[in-house]
């Protein structure tokens, strides 16, 4: 049962439903070909609809045209006071952490280079108090209507969880002060019907890449259809495992129990041309460099005594090759 204080907070939060989160926001830049090109290159999307004189913007870029960027501007353009007040109220209640949980978009008309978007956003809903594995808090959903002139182009719903983190406890229920020093078991990969074949290959020590049987395009991560021609038929090719570090980031914060920061997360470009996110092993994090040659190897996790995993599993990692 909720305490009287929690009931009061929940009632105050509910009062924000229907209030504006952004008013008369204007995109910082018109829809433009360079941003479309960069997006398509990053996503590996070669759909011809996004190039040429009659190009449209990928529909999933809808939110990109409303974002403030890294200029130091305080919040998105047009942000209303109500949204800041809502977040401050949650912060004051101890819900200082935030994680994005869900995004829904509806596309009404395509956006084309030269279009200047405007937008309004509303605080659509605030949930009752919820307890999750991350902690206890509230789900906040905002809805943004994106327009060109008076014409609706699309709707973007974004849901976050503002929560108070749950202290990590030992099995006896006492808070474990050393838990941040002892790595926990690695999180298991999320296996679904679209990527099950990849993980089955990894379990056998094989790095399998999808290949479209319509146009021959290789793709990773695994998808139900080809992002080049739309064909739903595919087979696989086995990668050699050799590649180079295309990009990387060194993670310092936030701490994650399964890893000991700082550590490098890399984007490896395989010899076959596709890219894969993983870790580089065999060298310190501060020696990882763009262009570093690497080779895949397969490591089994979840085999330590007392591990929480029901069964061991295999993950692909990349080892720096000699002479790198």
UniProtKB/TrEMBL annotation:
Annotated region described as Disordered, given as residue ranges: 164-193
Organism: Streptomyces anandii
SUPFAM superfamilies found in the cross-reference section: Nucleic acid-binding proteins, Thioesterase/thiol ester dehydrase-isomerase
All copies of domain FAS1-like dehydratase, residue ranges: 27-146
Protein name: Bifunctional MaoC family dehydratase N-terminal/OB-fold nucleic acid binding domain-containing protein
Domain ChsH2 rubredoxin-like zinc ribbon, residue spans: 199-230
ChsH2 C-terminal OB-fold domain span: 237-299
Any Pfam family: OB_ChsH2_C
Domain of life according to the entry: Bacteria
């Amino acid at each position: 049962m909720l305490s009287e204080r929690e009931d009061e907070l929940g009632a105050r939060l509910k009062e924000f439903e229907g209030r504006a989160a952004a008013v008369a926001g204007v995109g910082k830049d018109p829809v433009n070909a360079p941003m479309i090109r960069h997006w398509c290159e990053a996503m590996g999307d070669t759909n011809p609809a996004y190039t040429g004189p009659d190009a449209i913007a990928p529909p999933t870029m809808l939110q990109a045209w409303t974002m403030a960027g890294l200029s130091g501007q305080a919040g998105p353009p047009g942000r209303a006071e109500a949204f800041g007040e809502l977040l401050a109220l949650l912060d004051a209640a101890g819900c200082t952490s935030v994680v994005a949980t869900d995004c829904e978009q509806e596309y009404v008309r395509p956006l084309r280079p030269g279009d200047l978007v405007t937008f309004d956003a509303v605080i659509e809903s605030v949930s009752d108090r919820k307890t999750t594995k991350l902690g206890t808090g509230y789900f906040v959903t905002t809805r943004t209507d994106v327009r060109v002139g008076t014409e609706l182009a699309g709707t973007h719903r974004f849901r976050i969880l503002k929560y108070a983190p749950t202290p990590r406890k030992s099995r006896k229920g006492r808070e474990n002060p050393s838990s941040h020093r002892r790595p926990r078991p690695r999180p298991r990969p999320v296996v679904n019907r679209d990527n099950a074949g990849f993980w089955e290959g990894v379990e056998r020590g094989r790095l399998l890449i999808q290949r479209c049987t319509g146009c021959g395009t290789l793709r990773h991560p695994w998808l139900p259809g080809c992002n080049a021609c739309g064909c739903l038929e595919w087979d696989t090719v086995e990668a050699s495992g050799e590649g180079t570090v295309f990009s990387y980031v060194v993670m310092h914060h936030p701490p994650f129990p399964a890893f000991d920061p700082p550590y490098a997360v890399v984007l490896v470009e395989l010899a076959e041309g596709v890219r894969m996110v993983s870790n580089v092993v065999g060298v310190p994090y501060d020696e990882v460099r763009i262009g570093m040659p690497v080779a895949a190897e397969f490591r089994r996790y979840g085999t330590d005594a007392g591990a929480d995993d029901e069964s061991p599993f295999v993950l692909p990692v990349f080892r720096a090759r000699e002479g790198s």
